[in-house]
Structures are given as C-alpha cells and as structure tokens.
C-alpha cells in the first residue's frame, strides 16, 4: 500500500465571500462566534443577529464576509475538517513511526483538537445534512458534498494506518474500516463530556488526550 | 463495594397524558414515529403534523396522548434511558459474571440496543437541553432533570463494574469514571454510522455488537 500524499487540506474551499481584505482572522473570529451561538441555540433557532451579539460586532460586518447562516455553518464544518486533516494527516504520513505509535499520536492529536476547539467540534456534532434541507445554491451543494468527502478522507487516514498495523502483525486482524469507528467514536465523544469552561492548562489536556489515545490503541493491539 | 439494587428503571416517569386506555403500545408507536420525524427534520422544524404523517394517524390522536412536541421529545429520552437501564442494569447486577465479562456483555447489550432501536438513539443524540430552552412547565422541568439523572445513573452502571475490575486487578488501574467515557463514546457513535435501513439479520447485528464490545473491553484490560 503506497502512502498517499497528504493532499486533503490544501484544497478545502472556504465559503467566505471573496472580498479584498477578507482575512483568515476575520473568518476565524466569525466561525468561533457562530459555533458558540449554534451550540447555545441549535442551528434553526440561531440568527445572524445572535452571531453578531457573540462577536460583539454588527450584523453588517458578518454579511460582509458571509452570505447566510447556512454558509457559516457549512464553512465551520469545512474549517474544522481542514484543521483535523492538516494536523492528523501530517502524523499519518510520518514514515519514522510504526503503525501503533502512529495511531496513538493521531488519536492524541484528534483529542487535543476536540478539547482545545470544543465549540467547533460541538457545532459540527449538531449534524449537517438534517439542517440544510433548504440549501439550494449550487455552491452550497458543492460545499456540503465536500464536507462529506473530507469526513471520509479523514476517516481514511485512520483506516490506512490501522491496515498497516494489521499487515505488520502489530494490530489484531481487525477489519480496518470497522475498527476505525469505535476509535473515532471514543474520541469524538469528548465533545459531549469535556466542559468548554474547564480551562485546563495544556498539560492537563494532554494528559486526558494521552489516556484516550492509550484506550483507543489498546482496543487494536494483540493481547 | 456493595452491589446497588437495579432500581433505576422502575421509577422512570412517562409524559404520556394520564387517560383511561393510554397503552404502552400507543406510546411506543408515537415515540417511534416521532423519532423518525425528529431525525429527518431536527427538533425545531418538526411539527405534530409531521409526527402524525409518519404515524399515519391524525394530529388529534397524538394530542390524545401527549400535550406537546416537547413532551414527546422528553418522553423519548426517558423511554430510551429506561430501556437501556433495564437491559444493561440487569447484566451489571449479575453476581455470576466477573467484571471483564460483565463489561463485555454490558457493551454488547448497549450496542445491540443502539442498532435495533437506531431512531430512538439518533433522536436522543440530537441533544436535549439546547432544544428545550422554552420548556417552562414544572412537570417538564422535572422530566428534563430526570433525563439527566438517568443518564448519570446509566453511566454509573459502567463505572461501578469498571471499578470492580480495577480492584480485582483484571482491568488496568484506570480511573473508572474517566474510562467509562471513551467506552460509551465508542458505543454511542454506532448511531452515527450504522444505517437504519441495513435491516441486518440479528446474527449480523450481534456480530457487530460483539466486535465493538471486544474493542471496548480491550481498552481496559491489562496487556
């Protein structure tokens, strides 16, 4: 099995309106505020006004960057997946690590990401397809499609390394795609129980992530 | 540590309107239809009419049993937790099984429950607190509170058996409550990836559940 290039994150589109001066920073600020608003009220009940309130800015400022609430929600998913694929993909591609250590570090990085950007992850757990039944513009349909592709691509990062570990006899003879499910479930569930206001120092977050990664890897290894 | 009585499921209230002839069967039919409707549209966008459509009955029939959409949603959570606590609680209380085997069978039963009642589990994953900001009647507040208590009670079933396994040296020296999180995450995530329309025969469902239980238990055992 050849190692595919870590190509996913570089071609993730953004739904940011293409304007001179539309910065990554403005995008990040809006997405962060939107994630907080969506988590507090759910997607349907959240208005652009609510997002503006959290941001401490005017509605006009948000419309300068995004066409609609649906666009922000879609962009939140894209950005969240881009970050995960960036971080975890770079570990998945490391030839110096054996499969066991690689899966461990991938799980660790994923858990850290969920805990340190808990609002993003909670918002993406609100689901996507259900909320965007009314999405109709072609660019929105394309973005929704891209979210699903990126999700598969992200899962594939784990599937491939698990397959390598099985080939190498370092993991049990599990079916790699099936085995990736409880592993990702254990990690994603962090968004349900880790409190966003815990404000743990980084070493406490890392300790939690390491324990989770250990749990996930043990499920795969030979006993 | 003494084995607490499996007391949880017996005192789970229902939000069914107290009427002569209000049967468990009618309740189950409405909850099942509501779960399908909530999953298709989300909580806010679902109307009693939508539930009636899925049920193939009139809106009046539903109002005969439930006061509101919020009541149905609350009852869905209560019923789902009652079933889980019933099934898994009876395994947790079995003195003939050692902790490792007990956790395995508890995980197995939980996974089976998620797969065979996937609409209930998906609907409860929509979350509760966010959607019921407007709930104000005291009986609804009490029901919401009860849902959270039952969720804790359910988690405690796992925490206690994990603690026993640690005491007995059959599990690694994990912190039992912390260890219950990835375990439940791995199991609950099934609602995200198992397709409701797969219509697998029971032995296929059991095979999946056994593989998941195996994964979950391995995360806890000494290597």
TrEMBL record, chains A, B:
Q: Which UniProt keywords apply?
A: DNA-binding, Transcription, Transcription regulation
Q: What positions does the DNA-binding region cover?
A: 47-66
Q: What is this protein called?
A: TetR/AcrR family transcriptional regulator
Q: Does the keyword Ligase apply?
A: no
MF GO annotations:
DNA-binding transcription factor activity; transcription cis-regulatory region binding
Q: Does the keyword Transcription regulation apply?
A: yes
Domain (HTH tetR-type): give its ranges. 24-84
Q: Name one Pfam family in it.
A: TetR_N
SUPFAM superfamilies documented for this protein: Homeodomain-like (SSF46689), Tetracyclin repressor-like, C-terminal domain (SSF48498)
